[in-house]
Write a structure and sequence with these properties.
The protein is mainly beta.
């Protein structure tokens, strides 16, 4: 029994010595050691989950971390940094900026532990994938010849479908096509590339758009400036007449194909002249051919026509009442001719005619270059403004010039 107890004591003592020796070896011969490893690439796991959610990873496109590991000297001696695997799980996140924790594992080295990871989280930005229609804007460069004018440029299609991350799509301020006008004298259809630009007029990249080219219709017209002529129909009553016509504007800019260059004037649509008796001023339309239109479609043309009621009045004058001009020296009109009379018929507005006298007619006979003898002479008139001498009877008048 004593021998068995001694054997057990020796065994326990040997075990204690072994533990002490093992601890010595582990602490002195194979101690713990830490190592910092930089630029460990981070794998982006479950990135396909973003597609299912209609999301796209905006940034970062790649990431790396610094990892501090710890292990026994013997293990660390055989350790390969390629055994460190860092990753983030991108499933389950929504749109916006989100911090995602970094996971790090050490493969093939069970006794090596991860002490620290820097950074332990990575800030990711996720954007929603969106699509929207954007109208096409036409930008012109250069200029047309002064005799030509540009019509309304149209595009087909009129808009472009833009697709991509929300933040990039929202950067697109305009969808443009550029049209060069230099040298153009006829209308044309061209196919031009689309450009996406931001508020700073810089091109936006990374966004998909359909279509990438569009058809552009560029209408170019010949331009002329011509007078406007009033076109009337029907007749005024006998006792009415037009005393004044004014058209505002009197000339107008028209556009059409190159044949318009030969146009010298443009008429209004026919207007019943009798309308102006009660309504002297009105807007009118032009009688435009099919291939001609106004440069300014909103331009208004106003016609003012003064129609007045007229009155005819006759005056009987003898030669004694008529001014005799340039009678030759030493000559006179025979006494029997001085009693001859003429009838003068004048016409004018009622207002003017009421106050008109024979003196206002200014009737005269000019005897320049007439000598002694029998002559046929014509009476003239200095008719007042607005008064028309309709008739002088007889005309010519036979008179005899004799020596005084």
């Amino acid at each position: 029994m004593s021998k068995e107890r001694n054997d057990l004591t020796l065994k326990v003592f040997a075990l204690i010595i072994a533990v002490i020796l093992w601890s010595y070896v582990m602490s002195e011969v194979n101690p713990d050691r830490s190592e910092t490893i930089r630029n460990i690439p981070v794998a982006f796991n479950n990135i396909e989950a973003l597609d299912r959610q209609g999301l796209v990873l905006m940034e970062p496109k790649e990431a790396s971390v610094t990892v501090r590991v710890n292990g026994r000297k013997f293990d660390m001696a055989n350790f390969d940094s390629k055994s460190i695997k860092a990753y983030v799980d991108l499933s389950g996140y929504g749109e916006g900026q989100i911090k995602v924790p970094v996971n790090v594992v050490v493969e093939d080295f069970n006794n090596i532990r991860v002490e620290r990871v820097e950074p332990s989280e990575i800030l990711f930005k996720f954007d929603k994938l969106i699509s929207k229609q954007k109208a096409v804007t036409v930008q012109t460069e250069g200029s047309l010849d002064p005799n030509y004018i540009l019509g309304d440029i149209t595009t087909k299609p009129a808009s472009v479908l833009i697709s991509g991350p929300r933040s990039w799509v929202n950067e697109v301020a305009e969808v443009i096509v550029k049209v060069d006008l230099d040298g153009r004298k006829v209308s044309s259809d061209v196919t031009l590339p689309v450009q996406l630009i931001d508020d700073n007029k810089e091109k936006v990249s990374g966004v998909r758009y359909e279509p990438s080219v569009i058809d552009v219709d560029i209408p170019v017209y010949r331009k002329v400036n011509v007078p406007i002529e009033l076109q009337t129909e029907n007749q005024l009553p006998e006792n009415y007449e037009i005393t004044n016509i004014s058209i505002n504007p009197s000339r107008i800019d028209l556009k059409g194909d190159n044949s318009i260059a030969y146009l010298t004037s443009i008429s209004t649509k026919p207007i019943d002249i009798n309308v102006f008796i009660e309504n002297p001023t009105m807007e009118v339309e032009l009688d435009l051919p099919n291939n001609i239109s106004l440069v300014n479609p909103n331009e208004k043309i106003t016609v003012s026509v003064i129609v007045e009621e007229t009155l005819s009045k006759s005056f009987e004058l003898s030669l004694e009442d008529i001014a005799i001009r340039n009678l030759g020296e030493g000559l006179k009109i025979a006494e029997e001719d001085l009693s001859k009379t003429i009838t003068v018929t004048a016409k004018g507005s009622v207002e003017q005619m009421e106050d008109l006298t024979e003196d206002d007619l200014g009737i005269y006979i000019d005897l320049s270059f007439f000598g002694e003898g029998q002559h046929n002479v014509y009476a003239g008139s200095h008719q007042p403004t607005g008064i028309v001498i309709e008739n002088i009877d007889p005309q010519p008048l036979e008179i005899n010039l004799i020596r005084d």
